[in-house]
Amino acid sequence: QAQLLESGGGLVQLGDSLRLSCTASERTFNFEAYAINWFRQTPGKEREFVGAISQSGFTTFYGDSVKGRFTVLRDGVKHVAYLQMNYLNPDDTATYYCAASRLYGLGSTAHLTYDYWGQGTQVTVSS
Fold this sequence. Notes:
Blueprint: E1 4-7, E2 10-13, E3 18-24, E4 35-41, E5 48-53, E6 60-62, E7 70-75, E8 80-85, E9 94-101, E10 116-117, E11 121-126
Parallel strand pairs: 2-11
Antiparallel strand pairs: 1-3, 3-8, 4-5, 4-9, 5-6, 7-8, 9-10, 9-11
């Protein structure tokens, strides 16, 4: 079964930028048929919605904690979505996940709301 793959995580310092990528594990996956949603989670805390982009790529929305700093993008030719993170701070430290949904604008953090999930990539921001 197809699933999503995140990459680009790592250890960065306060104020740095980082770009995460989300692709499909199988080339036959119709990536452009899905809205792409980004989430993050740290141990002991609930999953937090970060941002989402519509199938067309023309519409995005974000969680309050990342507005103005994070941007969700997608490339229809390369079949990849990105989470561009700027002005990172230690509170952004988390495992970041992407998830695909047929509907855009859900904003839900419930796992079953989404059709496909990635395994996550760790982002650590040091002060």
